[in-house]
Amino acid sequence: MMYSTSRRYAAEFLGTALLLAIVVGSGIMGERLAAGNNAVALIGNTLSTAAGLVILITAFGPVSGAHFNPVVTLVFAARGEFPRGDVLAYIALQFAGAVAGVWLAHAMFAEPILQVSPKLREGPAQGLAEAVATFGLIATILGGLRFKSDAVPTLVGLYIASAYWFTASTSFANPAVTVARSLSDSFAGIAPASAPVFIIGQLVGAAAAAAFFGWLYAKPAKE
């Protein structure tokens, strides 16, 4: 079933907003309850984000595709699996939804709505971590869609739960998420000055995954 453009756009905006409300809100809650123990705070943040992803992809996927991420949209467009005329609109909605979700989280926790994060996450290792995180995310999505499409929501949630812990950057893997989290002086925040390295890593990782899995999953040539 093909939903109308307005419904697809609304789903993509709202799904992205709810994702960021989950990421930032659980980060604030975790930090408040962990009494300075960052490992405990990250566990709470991880579990909430992973569970939220499974639910949001399941709920919004049939309507908008549940990209919630500019690099996912770009990869699908490059593969000819997403209308190129919708690319800019989806990306704009993802960025707008992400910022709205951060502001919603702030409002729920009685925090100032407008904030800027001072949390520096610097260095080439952070960029490499984001490239790896994003490569793995695209691998999870493309592999899931090819071999077990009904499991994609669960697979993405599980991958992000893992990547929160095995990557040095805690796996943002999403330019819209990165920009939005720069607007939150919370556990989940990132300083605006650190965002470009993250975004470059994400774009590189997504491009590498699109190229590799385009080759890996190509239909064998007929003999």
Describe this structure in words.
This protein has 223 residues and is mainly α. The protein has helices spanning 5-33, 38-64, 70-78, 87-108, 124-147, 152-166, 175-181, 195-216. α5 (124-147) runs parallel beside α8 (195-216). The radius of gyration is 17 Å and the shape is globular. The model has no long low-confidence stretch (mean pLDDT 97).
By DSSP, the count of extended strands is 0
In DSSP terms, counting alpha (H) and pi (I) runs of 4 or more, how many helices? Answer: 8
Whole-number mean pLDDT: 97
Radius of gyration: 17 Å
Main attributes?
223 residues, mainly alpha, 8 helices, 70% helix, globular
Write the layout of secondary structure elements.
Layout: H1 5-33, H2 38-64, H3 70-78, H4 87-108, H5 124-147, H6 152-166, H7 175-181, H8 195-216
Helix pairs in contact: 1-2, 1-4, 2-6, 3-4, 3-8, 4-7, 5-6, 5-8
